[in-house]
Amino acid sequence: MPRKVNCGIDYDDGYDDDFDDYDYGYDVEENVKEPSLQDTIKRGVWRCSVCTYDNDDTMSSCDICGILRSPSVSNGTYDEKRTAPFKFDVPSPDDLVSNGLHSSAQHSKAKIFDFKSSRAPSSGVGKNEAVKVLSSAKSSDSSHDSTGKDKHGGIIFSKNLEINPSSGFKASDKSSASMAKGRVEDSDGRSVSNNLCSSGQSSSSLMPKERTDMVEDGSSLTHGGEGYLTSNLKNMTLGAKSGNSKDIKANSRAQYKPEKWMFPEKAEGSLTQLNLAIVGHVDSGKSTLSGRLLHLLGRISQKEMHKYEKESKLQGKGSFAYAWALDESAEERERGVTMTVAVTYLDSKRYHVVVLDSPGHKDFVPNMITGATPADAAILVIDASIGSFEAGMDGTKGQTREHAQLIRSFGVDQIIVAVNKMDAVEYSKDRFDLIKSQLGTFLRSCDFKDSSVTWIPLSAVENQNLVVAPSDVRLSWYHGPYLLDAIDSFQPSSRDFSKPLLMPICDVIKSSQGQVSACGKLEAGAVRSGSKVLVMPSADIATVRSLERDSQTCSIARAGDNVAINLHGIDGNHVIAGGVLCHPDFPVAFARHLELKVLVLDGATPILMGSQLEFYAHHAKEAARVARISLLLDSKTGKVTKKAPRCIVAKQSAVIELVLQESICIEMFSKCKALGRVFLRTLGRTVAVGVVTRIVEELV
Ligand code: GTP
Ligand code: MG
């Protein structure tokens, strides 16, 4: 029934809880310049070869990053092990604490972001059948034709990206990275390279050589107003709006004139679309809750439900009957674990809700990131059982905090905390209050406003407080809204109807007849049958043949809509997940050298010069290296506290430069929030969230 958003990770064989299959022993020898003698032998100090900190001569290891002193400058104490290729040793936060370097602002509200999203109704959408999941856990080349309608009449998607366990992420479809060829002129008359091995069609504007539409100069970095990284972001956006931007490109964007059909006419009775991410720690009951809601609202028939119950019982997984509606793959069912985001639909009074049921297991956080980024709002599911809430909150193994931080950095500022499995704690008010108090403090530190968080005690299994008020007397102490009511209380998201088309491609469907469709959520603009679109990064111009929303043909799709866009006039291999459909005159950037403003998450390992990280932005992933840490910012005021620091530790924010292994479609946050948000991960955890502040060098 649901469609699975497939981020293409090749979970080849069984995983275990520790998932140590990846080789995280990054060899940074290539990336880190060995210190010259002059560098290293300053009087009384030695310079760390990794973070370049000048340590006191008496120190045998770096005071900042804990790396042992290089043998070439040690006081005769030659460390034989260090002559071997250098393995990157990241000190644990505990090490830093013991060095007195851990952020002392334990209780400070290190706000992550303030991606304010004003809210306005979007176009209504019809009632549609849910689309079937794409769920093969095996990665495959995007050129394969594995798609078409599945047995449920839905659509199965192909995968386009894979993780190379040893070297990080890589586009498996080499076309994404190897297309730079001829030169053309962009709409502003600049010479740009045509990134194309295309069908021979030309675009009037392709990739500008240099992005000068910086809305951010030193001042926007240094004067944060009310502080926090967030306020800098606000300033950036304001800077652009107030005409501080020097870019001709920005002017030409301002000159963009949307046509009348691009704006929705709110038809009476039509529902506004709401992309709702269901997130939370593993086994908290996300899929069970989603399945139960679908069943209660008639999206899963009684007959289907019987089938799930029977089959799950047969496999000794009776308690997963509702989750089976979402966890469709044999592997997910066998393990009782969601692996990829399942997309399904339900209608509330006010919304056509696109449900994004995310995996909670820590190994599948990358899938959660790529699948749930289009969320407008979220339900954070908590397992109220004794010990389970605590496990979810655990800083190293729990996913509750990481999911909350990620959701906030996706721009989601309104959430429901569904305190599930209340049946397991006798619907205890004390337990609910304890969870609310502990988690509430953390959510505030993530910049969720109390007024934007709704707390609901419920039980998915016992159907308490989901679509009607609870019937169990043990919940008589609760007087708030039930879950469906709370969903209807979300504010609708604003949509960028008046901007040029931008649709990050999350999946590609290829039919056996050679037709190709790009799937994703329109972040800006609109398209209709017959529209010309620029497909990046191939820079091919294609024509929209038809559009599908929730498996139903539609004639127009506008910002906020999740659609499959059937294209013609393009080689199917040039349409890849992680790519972007844009207006032909307003191409998205394609780059690998970026400047970011990042916040290192609480408890995360430090980021050093030369650190190898996994980089995520919209549906794109790439291996990346920290090329420069330019500025350290005060996380409260946003002011520059240090230039060229050696490393950034937990709760610090900074401006850094990152070089990706391959170029990706990307945009500055000030231009497109959805394409300018980034996530940095390493060692199986998200270490930082941030935004793109500058495209340092675009592919030419
Ligand atoms: P992942 O997607 O793998 O992170 O798991 P999940 O959060 O989707 O959890 P899932 O729905 O698969 O449920 C995990 C287990 O919790 C199953 O055995 C469910 O029956 C059980 N469960 C879910 N909701 C409830 C509830 O309200 N009460 C009780 N007692 N158990 C529940
Ligand atoms: Mg699940």
From TrEMBL:
<keyword id="KW-0488">Methylation</keyword>
<comment type="similarity">
    <text>Belongs to the TRAFAC class translation factor GTPase superfamily. Classic translation factor GTPase family. EF-Tu/EF-1A subfamily.</text>
</comment>
<keyword id="KW-0342">GTP-binding</keyword>
<keyword id="KW-0479">Metal-binding</keyword>
<dbReference type="InterPro" id="IPR036443">
    <property type="entry name" value="Znf_RanBP2_sf"/>
</dbReference>
<dbReference type="InterPro" id="IPR001876">
    <property type="entry name" value="Znf_RanBP2"/>
</dbReference>
<dbReference type="GO" id="GO:0008270">
    <property type="term" value="F:zinc ion binding"/>
</dbReference>
<keyword id="KW-0863">Zinc-finger</keyword>
<dbReference type="InterPro" id="IPR009001">
    <property type="entry name" value="Transl_elong_EF1A/Init_IF2_C"/>
</dbReference>
<keyword id="KW-0862">Zinc</keyword>
<feature type="compositionally biased region" description="Basic and acidic residues">
    <location>
        <begin position="141"/>
        <end position="153"/>
    </location>
</feature>
<keyword id="KW-0547">Nucleotide-binding</keyword>
<dbReference type="InterPro" id="IPR004161">
    <property type="entry name" value="EFTu-like_2"/>
</dbReference>
<dbReference type="GO" id="GO:0005525">
    <property type="term" value="F:GTP binding"/>
</dbReference>
<dbReference type="Pfam" id="PF03144">
    <property type="entry name" value="GTP_EFTU_D2"/>
</dbReference>
<protein>
    <submittedName>
        <fullName>HBS1-like protein isoform X3</fullName>
    </submittedName>
</protein>
<dbReference type="InterPro" id="IPR009000">
    <property type="entry name" value="Transl_B-barrel_sf"/>
</dbReference>
<comment type="function">
    <text>This protein promotes the GTP-dependent binding of aminoacyl-tRNA to the A-site of ribosomes during protein biosynthesis.</text>
</comment>
<dbReference type="Pfam" id="PF22594">
    <property type="entry name" value="GTP-eEF1A_C"/>
</dbReference>
<dbReference type="Pfam" id="PF00009">
    <property type="entry name" value="GTP_EFTU"/>
</dbReference>
<feature type="domain" description="Tr-type G">
    <location>
        <begin position="271"/>
        <end position="495"/>
    </location>
</feature>
<dbReference type="GO" id="GO:0005737">
    <property type="term" value="C:cytoplasm"/>
</dbReference>
<dbReference type="InterPro" id="IPR000795">
    <property type="entry name" value="T_Tr_GTP-bd_dom"/>
</dbReference>
<feature type="compositionally biased region" description="Low complexity">
    <location>
        <begin position="191"/>
        <end position="205"/>
    </location>
</feature>
<dbReference type="InterPro" id="IPR050100">
    <property type="entry name" value="TRAFAC_GTPase_members"/>
</dbReference>
<dbReference type="InterPro" id="IPR027417">
    <property type="entry name" value="P-loop_NTPase"/>
</dbReference>
<dbReference type="GO" id="GO:0003924">
    <property type="term" value="F:GTPase activity"/>
</dbReference>
<feature type="domain" description="RanBP2-type">
    <location>
        <begin position="42"/>
        <end position="71"/>
    </location>
</feature>
<feature type="region of interest" description="Disordered">
    <location>
        <begin position="136"/>
        <end position="228"/>
    </location>
</feature>
<dbReference type="InterPro" id="IPR054696">
    <property type="entry name" value="GTP-eEF1A_C"/>
</dbReference>
